[in-house]
Amino acid sequence: MKPTKAYSASSATSLLAPDTIQRREPTERDVAIDILYCGICHSDLHTVRDEWASVMPTTYPCVPGHEIVGRVTKVGAAVTGFKEGDLVGVGCLVDSDHSCGSCAKNVEQFCPNAAFTYNSPDAHLGGVTYGGYSERIVVDERFVLRIPSNLDPAGAAPLLCAGITTYSPIKRWGNLEGKKVGVVGLGGLGHMGVKFAKAFGAHVVVFTTSPGKADDARRLGADDVIVSTDPEQMAAQAWTFDFILDTVSADHDLNAYLRLLGLDGEITLVGAPENPMAVSAFALLFGRKRISGSLIGGIAETQEMLDFCGEHGIIADVEVIPIQLLNEAYERMLRSDVKYRFSIDMASLKGESR
Ligand code: NAP
Ligand code: ZN
Q1: Residue 47: CB within 6 Å of ligand 1?
Q2: Ligand 2 centre and the CA of 65: distance in Å?
Q3: What is d(CA 60, CA 7) in angstroms, rounded to the nearest whole number?
Q4: Which site in 11, 121, 261, 310 is 20 to 30 Å from 180, CA atoms measured?
Q5: For residue 316, which ligand has an atom nearest its CA?
């Protein structure tokens, strides 16, 4: 066991604070990783504050972080895919049973025995898994990803969650060439959604509650920007969309977006607000419209997404922060003041004494 510096929350109402956790010694199949950068996902905040208590209650202390990029420091004897010094990533998953139907279909995120990177039962040490707001992590090689060498590691870290979560539904939708695609919410997920939808040839429209983000939206690849709080701008888009990706983290009116879909149009939710949402049956009936959801992506698809990003030079737009600014970053995230993902420079943790 190796004592490891981390930041944890000790309750739903406490700030994140310095802590020391234990990491296991690498077993045969494990890869030990020194963490260089870890993105801050809104799911970290939902979990820390136990906002998903009805589905996935939080066990404390909670060390979040599932957008991890780091260097391999040690590998177990049976590891074949990685060696010391490799630049690697770890996303939201660290284990699954490899025997269920979901694992057979490479969608390990739906395995009934999947272990998430934090707040899941830890099969090795007991207690729960601890995430990337820490110096190092030890992960089964089957859940370690290769980071293309041309990608900046700070900007690559958010690909491990925000990247795959938007890439997967956008890719699955089908050929987007020339289709009209909406992305609701320009935060961490949303800005990656814009980049991927554009890369797949769509006409991309961003819906934002923050008019000040319009120029950035266009720079990121949007063809048009709609301020969603303006009823006139919204009404002008009625019945025009093929596909809408909803990345919003808080309560909002889904019916307003259903009205914008055309015949057989689909809205996919990736945002995970705390409260259930009301849907008007009529908003679905007229136009045979569909609502669907999507959860991250499997390991093979995550590697495919990373390779795609390597080929196209796609990374997240990040504001790199020291870990000491974590609580401030959470408050800014709640104010939709993220441009467009915080990436923690883990070197800032190394100097801290406990
Ligand atoms: P984020 O960076 O905070 O972005 C969310 C954006 O939603 C904000 O920037 C804001 O964009 C918009 N928004 C916030 N409050 C709103 C409100 N009340 N009404 C309308 N729009 C609002 O969060 P994120 O990290 O991208 O995560 C987004 C959501 O996806 C979270 O719920 C997170 O837990 C979830 N998530 C799901 C998965 C999955 O696998 N399905 C994976 C990761 C994250 P504007 O300023 O442009 O309006
Ligand atoms: Zn996430």
Answers
A1: no
A2: 8
A3: 12
A4: 310
A5: 1
Q: Which two tokens stand for residue 174?
A: 């089908």
pLDDT at res. 351: 78
- From the CA of 341, the nearest ligand is 1
For residue 171, count other CB atoms closer than 10 A to its CB: 16
- Ligand 1, atom 44, lies closest to the CA of 43
In this predicted model, what pLDDT tens digit does every residue of 214-238 receive, in sequence order? 999 999 999 999 999 999 999 999 9
Instruction: Give tens-digit pLDDT for 32-58.
Output: 999 999 999 999 999 999 999 999 999
The answer to whether residue 107 sits within a structural domain is: yes
On whether both 85 and 119 belong to a single domain, the answer is yes
- Which CATH number is 53's domain given? 3.90.180.10
Q: Which of 90, 163, 175, 107 is nearest to 310 (CA)?
A: 163
Ligand 1: atom nearest CA of 252 is 19
Answer yes or no: is the C-beta of 248 below 6 A from any ligand 1 atom: yes
Q: 131 and 65 in contact (C-beta within 8 Å)?
A: yes
Token pair of 194 as six digits:
């814009």
Note whether 148 and 202 are same-domain residues. no
Of all protein residues, the one whose alpha carbon is nearest to atom 15 of ligand 1 is 250
Q: Render pLDDT for 130-189 as a digit per residue (tens, 0 to 9).
A: 999 999 999 999 999 999 999 999 999 999 999 999 999 999 999 999 999 999 999 999
